[in-house]
Amino acid sequence: MSNVFAAAAEKWNKSRQASKDHKAQVENALKNKEIRLVDLSFIERNRMSQGYLLALKIKKVAIIVARFVLFFGLSFLILQPILSKISMSFMAEKDLYDSTVINIPAHFTLDNYRVVSELMAYGKCLGGSLFYSAFLAVLQVAVCTLVGYGFARFEFPFKKFWFFCVILTIIIPPQTISSALYLHFNYFDILGLIKLITGHTVNLRGSALPYILMSGFCMGLKNGVYIFMTRQYFRNVPRAMEEAAYVDGSGTLRTFVQVLLPDAKPIITSCFLFAFVWQWTDAYYSKLFLGNADLLSTSLSGLGDRFNQYMQREHGVIGVGTGYTSAIISTGTLMVIVPLIILYLFEQRGFTESLAGTSVKM
Amino acid sequence: MNKKHRHLSMRTRKAIAGYLFIAPFIIGFIAFLAKPLIDSLWTSFCKVTFDNATNSFSKNFIGLANYKQAFNLDPKFRQLLTEEISTMVIRAISVLVFSFFISLLLNAKFKGRALVRAIFFLPVIVSSGVIVGIETNNQLLSQVADQMKEANTFSSISGTIEKILTTAISGGIGSSVLSTLFEVIDGIYDVAIASGIQIIIFISGLQTISASVYEAADIEGCTTWEKLWKVTFPMISSLLLVNVVYTIVDYCMMRSDSELMTKIKTEYVVNMNYGFSSAMSWIFFVCVGAIVALVTFIISKWVYYYE
Hints:
Strand order of the largest sheet of chain B: 1-2
Radius of gyration of chain A: 33 Å
Strand content of chain A: under 5%
CATH superfamily of the largest domain in chain A: MetI-like
Largest interface: A-B, 84 and 91 residues
Radius of gyration of chain B: 25 Å
Structural class of chain A: mainly alpha
Order of helices and strands of chain A: HHHHHHHHHHHHHHHHHHH
Largest sheet of chain A: none
Shape of chain B: globular
Number of strands of chain A: 0
Distance between the termini of chain A: 79 Å
CATH topology of the largest domain in chain A: MetI-like fold
Oligomer: heterodimer
CATH class of the largest domain in chain A: Mainly Alpha
CATH class of the largest domain in chain B: Mainly Alpha
Number of helices of chain A: 19
Mean pLDDT of chain B: 80
């Protein structure tokens, strides 16, 4: 027994001696510039750094692995609803209730898309959504840019008060005033003038006019945010350009349009994209004011009930299974967000880049 | 240029130009916000009755009765309000913490960073407005979802851990803290999809910090941990304010289907109880406003502006 130990100890000592010799050899070679440090193997360098290199390497790899796991998990968390919607949208009804079918449809079908596009009047609604979102976004951003510039560059009495009002429009939940607005537009009147002329107030509800008016006067969806963003941007632009323009005799508006606007393209693009996207998905204001227009968002919100009616009418099925209904709703949701995702893929920079300059200082 | 114009000083002219620029906002504010706002404030002090004969509403001033009803008589309002506000506060804090640390991680260089950033920002595009809660809008589906959640709590790993921990620490402050924590973790998806813009804002703030500050800190012998709290955090503290306000506002906008909002809406649409409904929404609004003001006050006290 002791023999074995002795042999092992001797072997150990020998190898230590060998490594010591080797170390001395390497150090000598390094000193005499026969080899360079980078030519050494990792193990050798680690030995010379007394284990520091290995620890560093382990730390580095651990960080990379941990980061990968974290981001993979979170990205999956964010994408999972979309992915599962995609897989559900291609499933036939029996796949939905088959517990052996997970994610990959056994009976691949495009029927869901056909039914949904019929129920939502997809073509018509797509056109409507495109038109309204683009039109309202252009209008809102144009006006908000003007206002933002006004807040950024001019000194006038009650400026603080009006800016407080901008913040107020951001933080008031639309629900607080929606009821009053509802009545406001039901019995619309401008300072009693219309009543004076025609004898009665105008009912503007049901037409798109109230919302266009609101958008034109900075009261649309999240317009306070766009004012805030453009104001932050213009505050950071150096004044020299404008002053040069003023000296050359350019007027205020002309200076704004010809000197400042061309450089403000990123922030305007970004505001436009946000306005477009939020208008596209908004159902609250749309339902309240654009009830008659064919919009994807409003037609999506009633899709489930409409599907049940459709099944009853066409196939005589009463009480469609929840799985099927949810597959239909998923398909509908996908069809609504696909144009947005395409937009995002092409304009990703436009969305994120100019947010950078907006938040410097309250 | 006529004579009258020449007499105006540069300053006055600038002021007029400024007012002209913000005129659309002023008009819009007065016409579409101030009026409805005052209307609804006034309504909240009134009893509104609908007169079928003349097809019009009449408002009788009844003082604080609606508010008293909300606080003292209504069985659910106080509970819903505290629930709504406490979830809002918890959500705001968790979104801030989450987006702060994610932005720190996303600011470092690594492969696939652009992709991860794109994914984290995606919910801003696709999870807004009608898309949020489209599944729970359908009553049947939300029931199924609730049942599945119930079933999952007892079969998953996290459910088991939760059970063990709650049994281990029962009673006292510990368990309530723990249950809040579990709520946050359960709602990590909601937190992640609500953090898109905040992450971008934090990242943009991180990128404005000049490398020389970090170099100076290195020379002084700061560890990475110290640099985080002594350099990074103060330098982007001004963005905290923007993000807090944004988070709270976004939360209020997004949660149009919360129980409190549903209650307000039902009182309004179904029960035609306009005064009471207005009073409730005003109480909620004042609470939110007070929180925003308080947070703004506290944060702006110690925010550090580097200039």
